[in-house]
Amino acid sequence: KLEEFLNFKQLKTSLKEAILLDYYTSGFWWAKEMNFSHEQLTGFMGLLNFLLENLSDKHMTLGDNIKELGRTMAGIGGTRSEESGDLFFFNVEQAKAIIDYLKISLFQPYKLYEYLFHTPREECVISKE
User: Fold this and answer.
1) How distant, in Å, are the alpha carbons of 1, 2, 49, 70 from that of 6?
2) How distant is the alpha carbon of residue 83 from its chain centre?
3) Which of 31, 64, 91, 125 is most exposed, with minimal Cβ within 10 Å?
C-alpha cells in the first residue's frame, strides 16, 4: 500500500525507491508497535517525511536537521497552545522514543542518505529488456 501511496513505479530496479520504501515502512511499523493513535501515526509519518525532505531537497546538514527536529518537537508535553507546535498530541515519553528511533533510523546513517540523494549514479544496463 505504501508503494502505491508513494507512487513508486520502479521499485524493482530503483535502489532509491527501495530504500525510501524501507524507511517509511519501518517507521510505520515502529509507530504501530508504539500503539500510536491515528492522529499520532499521521503526525509521525509527517515528521519522517519532513526530516527526509530537509535532507533531500534543502540539503540540510545533520546538525541543521537535528535543530529542525528540536524546533518541531518544542512544546511537547505542555498544554495545547500556539507555542506547543504541531506535535502537541505526543507526550514526553513518546517524544523521547521518537528521538531514539530517529537517532538509529535516520541520524546514524545520515551520510548514506546524503549519498543516496546527492551523489549521481551511473545507470548500468545489464540486458536489452
Assistant:
1) 9, 6, 11, 27
2) 23
3) 125
Residues with Cβ within 8 Å of residue 86, at least 6 apart in sequence: 43, 72
- Could you tell me the mean pLDDT of each successive run of 10 residues in the chain, 129 residues long? 72 79 93 96 94 94 95 76 67 94 96 89 63
The DSSP code for 78 is: S
Q: What is the pTM of this model?
A: 0.82
| Residues in the chain, overall count | 129
**Residue 49: per-residue pLDDT:** 93
pLDDT at 64: 96
Helices (H), 6-124: 15-33, 38-56, 62-73, 92-102, 110-118
